[in-house]
Amino acid sequence: MKVAVSGFKGRMGHEVVKTILKEEGLELIAVLDHKPKEKNICEIAEFSTVDVPVYSDLATMLEESKPDCVVDFTTPKVGYNNTKTIIEHGVRAVVGTTGFQAEQIAELRKMAEAKKIGAVIAPNFAVGAVLMMQFAQKAAKYFPNVEIIELHHDNKLDAPSGTAVKTAEMMAEVRDYVKQGAEEEVELIEGARGGEFEGMRIHSVRLPGLVAHQEVIFGAEGQGLTLRHDSYDRVSFMSGVALAVRKTKELETLIYGLENILD
Ligand SMILES: NC(=O)c1ccc[n+]([C@@H]2O[C@H](COP(=O)([O-])OP(=O)(O)OC[C@H]3O[C@@H](n4cnc5c(N)ncnc54)[C@H](O)[C@@H]3O)[C@@H](O)[C@H]2O)c1
Q1: What angle do helix axes 76-88 and 102-115 make, rounded to 10 degrees?
Q2: What is this protein's function per UniProt (predicted)?
């Protein structure tokens, strides 16, 4: 499969390039970033033996290099438009960029189905994180009192994380609505109780040194349950990305969430 990587100079994109280069059956044919100074990836010391053109415009890359699939790890601001452009060109998409609204995903799914194009958008490509979300959904049925604390590096642009939102959405499907905290509670400092999603509270921590971490804390009479997942290194996302790239070949729709393509 001919694969192009969008956002290749970013923290995730760089890891994706290394993965595509070593995965059997996947061929890196083009890379894209915002105003890159390189014309070919071989100008980067680490990739000096690799001959792959660098693009600064997505449509040009799609038209000239004709990839089978584009992996996009860019920024929440451009993720939606990039995915739209990729699908409009009849190319399969694997998108790890976060910040999508539910309506945007629904619209992109319609486009993918109309074009019979496979696409996967996942806010978290780490299998352990997906398991954490599934365990959280199972627990939320019995423990409706729950708060999420997500912790990320301090260059992250969106809050809360896509993983936290997805976890809350999955719990909301099975959880009896409960508004966390005392009815008369007052925030002495604005935001102290975090963001609210269907009565659940989500807290975002941003610190240097962190990668991607999340705790889902359940409380009930006389007992507590805490689920925690840690991505210590971005390599934790790569087996999920490679799986999604291969999976797009079998799909004629857009799948949201790695859990929906795991066997
Ligand atoms: N799904 C997952 O498993 C997962 C894991 C970690 C991070 N993320 C998300 O992935 C995204 C990227 O994260 P990161 O840490 O690599 O960010 P980053 O800032 O290190 O990298 C983003 C890259 O995208 C490039 N870019 C910006 N606009 C572009 C455009 N229009 N076209 C092409 N490239 C463009 C930037 O120049 C940069 O190189 C974020 O949304 C982040 O939340 C997802």
Answers
A1: 20
A2: Catalyzes the conversion of 4-hydroxy-tetrahydrodipicolinate (HTPA) to tetrahydrodipicolinate.
